[in-house]
Every structure is written in C-alpha cells, then in structure tokens.
Amino acid sequence: MSNHFFEFLISHAKVYGFIFPSSEIYGGLNATYDYGPHGVELKNNIKEFWWKSMTLLHENIVGVDSSILMHPDIWNASGHIDKFNELLIDNRDSKKRYRPEILIQEYVEKKFLNNSEKKEKILSRLSQSLKKNDLIDVKALIDELCICDPIEKTKNWTDIRHFNMMFKIKNESEKDLYLRPETAQGIFSNFQNIRKSNRMKIPFGIAQIGKSFRNEIFARKFIFRMREFEQMEMQFFILPEEEIKWYEYWRKIRFKWHLELNLEYKKYYKLSDHDSLSHYESAGSDIEFYFPFGFQEIEGIHSRRDFDLKNHEFFSKKKFRIFEYKKNYIPYVIETSLGLDRLFLALLSSSLKKEKLKNGKIRIVLKLPYYLSPIKGAIFPLVQKDGLPEIAKKIFNEIKIHHRLVYDQKESIGKLYRRQDAIGTPFCFTVDYDTIKTDTVTMRNRDTMKQKRIHIKEISRIIEQETGLKKILLKLSCFT
Ligand code: GAP
Fold this sequence. Notes:
By secondary structure, this protein is an alpha+beta fold. It is about 35% helix and about 25% strand. The chain has 3 domains: about 260 residues, BirA Bifunctional Protein, domain 2, CATH 3.30.930.10; about 80 residues, Herpes Virus-1 (2-Layer Sandwich), CATH 3.30.40; about 110 residues, Anticodon-binding domain (Rossmann fold, 3-Layer(aba) Sandwich), CATH 3.40.50.800. Strands 3-9-10-16-13-12-11 form a 7-stranded mixed sheet. It is globular, with a radius of gyration of 26 Å. The two termini are about 35 Å apart. The site of glycyl-adenosine-5'-phosphate (GAP) has 19 residues, from strand 10, strand 13, strand 16 and helix 12.
C-alpha cells in the first residue's frame, strides 16, 4: 500500500459519505473527524459485532456505559496525572510543536537510509536516553544531528519537556475536570457495583464502548491518531495466580478475532510484545495491522495486575478486595483495548479495491465483510416507467424494517451498481419487466458481479442469511 493509495482512500471516504474533516467550513480542526451517513452505519456494525463477540460469546462478560467526566481523583489514582505524558519540543520560529523522538527517528530514517550501522547507533543512543529520562541528551542529539524545523528550516529549538496528554476542563466552583483518556477507569471504578449487582464471580469481564480524548501533539495519518476517538475495552478480573493463563488466552482470542474478521487479509496482521511498558502494565502486546503507512498498533492486550484496583482502594478509601475461593484478595486484570477508529481504517484499507473489468473499465469496490457493510441491499427499478418504480418501492417498504436497505432510481442501472459497489453493498435487487409476470427480481452480487433471478419472497431471507452476524458469531464461538 502506498501514499498514493492512502490519499485515494481519504478522498473516497469523503466522496462516499464515510468520513469528513471536522469543522471543515471553518478550515477544520487538527486531528478531529466526523463520520458521515455510511461511516456511522459501518461504525455501528463494527460496535455491534465487537459487543456481541464479548457479551454473547462469553457468559461471564457484562457491559457498562460509564460517564466521560469523572471525579478528578480517579486520574490521580490511575497515574494519568503524573505519568500520562509525552515529550515535547517547540520551534520558536515556526511556533510548531513536535515529539522529539519522532523528529530524530524520521530524520535518521531518511538521512541514513543506506547506512544502517550509523542509524542503529543513533537510535540505540536515543532509546537509552529515553529509558533514563535523560532529556538533555535527547536535545543534544537534535543539536548534533543539526535537525531543522520541517517548515521554517531553522534550529531555534526550546528545551524538551513533558506534556500531559489529558484535556483539562476549567470548572469554576470545584476542582478542574479531565476528559477521560481511556474508558477503562469507568470500569475499574464500577467494579464493586457491577460485581454485586450482577452477582459476578471471578473470573469475569466488563466491556465498554465509548469516547476517549488525548491531546495528541503529533496527530496525523487521518483517523489513525485523533484527539477524540472511540475505544472498545474489556477488563477481565482474575485470580492473581492465573495471570499468565488469562493473558495468553486473551492474546490468542483477540488475535483470532481479527483474523476471522478480515479473513482474506491474514497476512496484514501480526502480534508483537511491548518493548516498553505503560505505567499501569506488567506485560503487554499489540495486535498490529499493515496500514497504508506500515505496521501499526490496532489493539493492545495488557496485564494491569492489581495496579488500578489497589490504587483506587488507596485513594478512595473504599474496599476493592473481595473474599472468594476462601481468601481475601484484590483481583488482577487482563485488559483488551481496541481502537474503533483504527479498526475502521484497517477495514477500509484492506477492502477498498480498484478492479479492471473485462471491458477495460475500472470499477471501485469496497469489499467489506458482508455483515459489516453499511447498506445490506439496494433495490432499483430497471426503468422509471411502466409501474416498475411502484413495484420496487413496495418491495422496499415491506422489508425495510428488517434490514438496512436503500431504494434508488436516480441514475441508470449501471451507475446505480457502481455506487453500491463503492460503498460496499453486498446485494442489488433489480425489478424489471419479468417481475410483473413472475414475481422475481435479479439479484447481483457485489464481488462476483454475477446475477441470478430469485423470487421476491426470498429477498429478506437471503439478506438475513448472507449479511447477518449469525454465521461469524457461530464460527467464533468455537474458539472461545
Ligand atoms: N486502556 C488502555 C489503553 O488505552 P492504549 O494502547 O493507550 O491503551 C488502546 O490504547 C487503543 O486505543 C490503541 O490500540 C488504539 O487502537 C486506540 N488509540 C489510542 N490512542 C488513539 C488515538 N489518539 N486515536 C485513535 N485511536 C487511538
């Protein structure tokens, strides 16, 4: 995949109503995007699939929907106020901010493309300095390499400092609030409420889908790294002595889930262990996807042990330990944390295709898994006369409450097919003159473009069978 492809994808997402730049009429707002009519349907389908994979396939996983604003002490206990930092350097001339380690990495990648020894030497010094939190040496590297501001081409750099990534909200009468940087804390803080109200016994999990916010100063790559994004997280509470067993279990299950989801693109996924650990984790691994800009994290699986529950017990003075299995203990936690927007981008990247047809023309097709497609079926009249639109509309009205369908008669049939291909609709049903005589329609498949005649009564059943979640959930249930 190339830069050229990435630009094509971004443009396609806008033209076909998947993703628009936020606040575009005012020149946009860095690293924020809006999901359009097809985007929101695709997003909802992904959420439903993840939610059902968690809460239907695992009888011991329940859900929660906690508030975005939380008591500010939550973020003291979670370590986010002290430790959720990135490094930052400003250029005084361009007034732009950069992540110093990324400035160095990108410079070295370009400058020493054919000198891997030199490259490794610099990157290893950078890694050592970062480990020791030696910001003076990181700055020295920028000076020694004579790295310039990419815009102003000057070396007028400030010192490097830490920058907290949480958005703070002024709250006049009380303590300042924060926009949550992860949904997980709404799960930890409700641990006892959920355990008691649902009579849960260890091991059990709590799943949540929701918005998170991070003041990313190096936000780019479209929806890959945004300042407002959605996470699908699950915290699985376990006996401490079962940490390795459950960590391995969730690594395997989550990797398998991605492979099954994007079956044809198995080679685009890899599982790698974290080199450096976040402040809350004792072990961690990433599921990575081959995006148009290379392999990058899509989901993290972390062992958080008792880091969060223990700290909440200390800060809130409430009891987080439980008495179960004849002992008093604070459960350990294995977390699976998936970025919904990143999964969305991964699916667009792997399914957007330009195909050359037999007649030499190019068709653009979005080969999404059928069960995730924003629109499941489209119904057209072949021509706009002789009663065909009325029949097509009647069929549409009869089944529209069962499936996400569109009715369209605005263009010629060929153009209608192309439009549905471009948004990933698995099936198009066309009402023609034979429909009047035989109560049948043509059914065209998105991927093969082959057509066959089916009875009107079959439409709903076929859509349900071919585009519903049942098949994939049944397949996944064999792995849990
Ligand atoms: N609760 C743990 C946690 O938040 P993380 O690795 O920081 O862990 C989990 O984030 C996932 O959230 C990532 O794998 C990624 O998919 C998504 N994510 C993180 N930051 C993001 C951002 N700025 N924009 C979009 N998605 C992001």
